[in-house]
Amino acid sequence: MKRLALTLLATMALPGIAHAQATDTASADVGVAGSVAKLCMLGTPTPAPVDLGQMANTSGTRVGKIAAISDRTVTLPGSFCNFAGSAITVTATALVADDASPVEPGFAKAVNYTAAVTNWAPGPAAVTTNATAAGGSPTNSATGPTQPAPKVADLDVTLSNFTAPSDNLLTAGAYSGLVVVKLGPVASGGD
Amino acid sequence: MKTSFLAVAAVLAATAALPAAAQNATGTVAVNGSVADRCQFTLPSDVINAGELSQQGAGSNAGKLDPSKLDGQSRTLQGWCNGTAATMSVEAQRLVNTTFTTTPPTGFDRVVNYDATATANSANATDTSVTDGAGTSVPVGMFTGDVKVTLSNSSSPTAGLLVAGDYSGQVLVTLTPAVTPAP
Questions:
Q1: Is residue A15 part of a domain?
Q2: Closest chain A C-alpha to B125 CA, distance in angstroms
Q3: Nearest CA distance, B141 vs chain A (angstrom)
Q4: How many distinct structural domains can be found in chain A?
Q5: Is the N or the C terminus of chain B less surrounded, counting Cβ atoms within 10 Å?
């Protein structure tokens, strides 16, 4: 009888043990981290360069003076910044004759204009050059409003309002100017 | 004379022992125990730091995800399961920009998805972060050793530009022992 009793006790105890220890799930994790640096890109200017052709009137009452030059628009497609808080700085240099000789009174060897970059922030980044008749101080710069979000857009650079200092006669020769567009964080002034 | 005395003594002793041998009894104590089904990680965590996730340079894909930064990345955990019916599952949780938390403008993404595969005991459990929750559990059985986690097939939702900032995600691996049915 003793032997039988011990065997029964063992049988009754086993189910309880199995229930209590059956589900010991284990979990592990692999953290995955990365970063994306602040980045701005400007699309390739199209068309570029801009050729204004003959800038002086060759006949009429304003012969020799600057002609009416139509606006020119250059597109920078797919320009973007991948962060909030960017701005455009536009730096324009007046068209100045390559001829280094001094300018006679009544003549000018510079053509000023306005360069405006649009389609980025709520307002344009615009600057107007103010070169002297002799071509001095040809470069001006301005920073536009802040773009408060990451953005990708086709930027339009419009050149307009072409004028000669004091509306003087333009000296003959080849003229060249330059527009530099910078897109970057506001804190660094658009660099 | 000596010999005769010893013989008599032996006979007496034998006679006295006979009644006791007839009443022998055997008692038995059964010894039982059990080992529950169990799984455990002995190396339960690691980190993949992928660094810069976007493509550099000035090409047409600059600023977009560089898949090579995540694809093929792996880490090896250590663990074991002591039951033949154990299973393994993996959950890939997408990388999310933790510094830019609002909806990005059109053309940008702030999420990076990927697939994760956990390999242990020649069994592969996979999951994609595109959908929430863990992938299908696979039998892993009784094993001890490596649980290798590998990333692949990374992408961003619109293949757009990635918003600048820090990105964070994780892969969860779960080893589940089978429930022992009650006898």
A1: no
A2: 14
A3: 13
A4: 1
A5: N
Fold exhibited by the domain B39-176: Jelly Rolls (2.60.120)
Give the residue numbers spanning the domain of A125. 44-188
Spans of all domains in chain B: 39-176
A3 lies in some domain: no
Distance from the A118 Cα atom to the nearest Cα atom in chain B, whole angstroms: 18
d(CA B57, CA B62): 6
Average pLDDT of the residues in A75-88: 96
Give the DSSP H/E element, type plus range, for residue A19.
helix A2-20
CB-CB neighbors (< 8 A) of A7 in chain B = 30
Bridge partner residues of A97 (DSSP): A175
Tokens of A68: 């009416």
Which chain B residues are closer than 8 Å to A33 by Cβ?
A: 47-50, 95, 166-169
- What ipTM does this complex have? 0.81
A149: exposed, middle or buried (C-beta count within 10 Å: 0-12, 13-18, 19+)?
Answer: middle
In a domain, A87, yes or no: yes
Q: Does A25 touch chain B (CB under 8 A)?
A: yes
| pLDDT tens track for A112-163 | 999 999 999 999 999 999 999 999 999 999 999 999 999 999 999 999 999 9
Range in A32-46, A144-158, B21-35, B40-54 the model is least confident about: B21-35
